[in-house]
């Protein structure tokens, strides 16, 4: 079969559509014929050599896919899945390929009303957003949540999900067009981080109960200042660096908590628990149309290099799909 290989750490040009061995199914895995995958920032970091796959994971990039079940591996007989089922899946790697082995607990049905290719835009953002806003962040109706990078794949999903939960949504983004798109998706408070201080704006709006942050170090202090008493900061990305100073006095006085998480390195059982929570609590919202996949553009899988260039330029809003 063919897959996108990272020939050496480097720029988008190191992504090569190459002939590679077929995946072999391990206990509890099914083989999926990939229809589409989607690009995540983590794939860019992996390509640059900064985010190696965890032990045992496929060496090819791709943290999600959609497609058709081709074969049931050992131990998956009673799982309820059959050959020919149309699925989408959360992956630990290997989505940029013609076929991929998937732990059965990481499969999801294609939601009603969503196309097979489009469904590849959902697993990674749905699992990340639901686990961090609900399980970790405890978001509830009526609370204010600040989503940094509202125009990102993660952001466009988080805005819709938080709105559907009944939260008041604030976003940051770097252009008027992205902020307008966030408003259409349900954001009430929109801040262009290039021209406005988000902390001042959030404080004028009564502060955030919860912040979903992708910047890390560069935003830590401003995030702590933007939170209300008992506020929670959940860090899922380090685009602004991994080290900074923290003012513990600020945390003490407002009883703040800070948590940082990553989905990819969680054990399979934790991923399966998240996938099952998403199926129960998020898929109905997708099927009733309260949340839609936001797809910026679709490119052929062989053009993964071009897709990475687009992502690195941040010209996109929402997800970039790669189809067979
Ligand atoms: N921990 C986890 O499990 C997990 C899972 C998935 C994703 N993530 C992380 O989530 C982040 C988003 O991922 P993605 O795949 O959705 O990537 P993406 O679509 O490329 O989004 C990155 C976004 O960040 C925005 N941005 C850049 N600088 C910013 C700043 N100073 N303030 C606010 N926004 C800024 C960019 O657009 P503009 O500058 O034009 O606004 C862009 O929309 C990444 O850091 C990724 O690693 C974490």
UniProtKB/TrEMBL annotation:
What SMART domains would the database entry show? PKS_ER
Which keywords has UniProt assigned to this entry? NADP, Oxidoreductase
Question: Taking every annotated instance into account, which residue ranges of this chain make up the domain Enoyl reductase (ER)?
Answer: 10-322
UniProt-listed Pfam families: ADH_N (PF08240), ADH_zinc_N (PF00107)
CDD domains in the record:
p53_inducible_oxidoreductase
- Source domain of life: Bacteria
Keyword Ubl conjugation on entry:
no
**What InterPro entries does its record include?**
ADH-like_C, ADH-like_N, ER, GroES-like_sf, NAD(P)-bd_dom_sf, Quinone_OxRdtase_PIG3
Q: Which Gene3D superfamilies match?
A: Medium-chain alcohol dehydrogenases, catalytic domain (3.90.180.10), NAD(P)-binding Rossmann-like Domain (3.40.50.720)
NADP as a keyword of this entry, yes or no, is yes
**Protein name listed in UniProt:** PIG3 family NAD(P)H quinone oxidoreductase
């Amino acid at each position: 079969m063919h897959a996108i290989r990272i020939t050496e750490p480097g720029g988008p040009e190191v992504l090569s559509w190459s002939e590679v061995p077929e995946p072999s199914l391990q206990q509890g895995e099914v083989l999926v014929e990939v229809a589409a995958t989607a690009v995540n920032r983590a794939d860019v970091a992996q390509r640059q050599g900064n985010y190696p796959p965890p032990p045992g994971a496929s060496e090819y990039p791709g943290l999600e896919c959609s497609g058709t079940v081709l074969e049931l591996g050992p131990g998956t007989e009673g799982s309820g899945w059959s050959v020919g089922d149309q699925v989408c899946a959360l992956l630990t790697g290997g989505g940029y390929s013609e076929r991929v082995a998937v732990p059965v607990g990481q499969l999801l049905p294609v939601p009603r009303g969503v196309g097979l290719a489009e469904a590849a835009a959902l697993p990674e953002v749905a699992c990340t957003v639901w686990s961090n806003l609900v399980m970790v962040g405890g978001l509830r109706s009526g609370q204010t949540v600040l989503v940094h990078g509202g125009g990102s794949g993660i952001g466009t999903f988080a805005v819709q999900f938080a709105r559907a939960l009944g939260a008041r949504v604030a976003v940051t983004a770097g252009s008027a067009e992205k902020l307008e798109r966030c408003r259409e998706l349900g954001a009430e408070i929109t801040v262009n981080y290039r021209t406005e201080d988000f902390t001042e704006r959030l404080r004028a709006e009564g502060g955030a109960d919860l912040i979903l942050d992708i910047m890390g170090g560069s935003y830590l202090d401003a995030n702590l200042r933007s939170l209300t008493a008992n506020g929670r900061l959940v860090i899922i990305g380090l685009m602004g660096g991994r080290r900074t100073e923290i003012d513990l006095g600020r945390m003490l006085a407002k009883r703040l908590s800070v948590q940082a998480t990553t989905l990819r390195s969680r054990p399979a059982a934790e991923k399966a628990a998240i996938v099952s929570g998403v199926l129960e609590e998020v898929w109905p919202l997708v099927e009733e149309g309260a949340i839609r996949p936001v797809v910026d553009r679709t490119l052929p899988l062989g053009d993964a290099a071009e897709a990475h260039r687009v992502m690195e330029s941040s010209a996109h809003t929402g997800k970039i799909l790669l189809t067979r």
